[in-house]
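Chapter review: from sequence to fold.
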Amino acid sequence: QVQLVESGGGLVQPGESLTLSCAVSGISGSIRNYRMGWYRQAGGKQRELVAGIAPIQSDDSTYYGNSVKGRFTISRDVAKNTLYLQMTTLKPDDTAVYFCNLFNMRDWWGQGTQVTVSS
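The C-alpha cell string follows.
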C-alpha cells in the first residue's frame, strides 16, 4: 500500500519561504521511477497542479504552474524517499491545502498540509 505523508505547512507572512516534505512508503524501487507532484486546493476552488516531476525515464523533467514559476522548486531525495516543494516569496494567493501525489497504476494522495500566507 502506497502511503504519502506531507509535512511542513504552517502560517507565514507574505514574502516568506516554506518547504513542504512528502515522505513516501510502500512503493517498489526508487521514487525516481514514478511521476510525482504537488497539488493545492484553496477554499471553494478545484484542486490544481502546482509542480510536477517526471520519472527518471523522462529525465526527471519538471513542470510548474504559471502562478508559481520562478518561486517554487520541486525536488526529491531518493535516499530518503522524500519529495520536496520549496516555496519562496509566498503570497496570500498561495494559501491552500497542499497535497502530494504519486502515480503508480493509479493516483495516490497524501492527507494534505495547510499553508496560510497572511500578515
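Two observations follow directly from the output. DSSP finds no helices and eleven strands in the chain. The chain has a mean pLDDT of 95.
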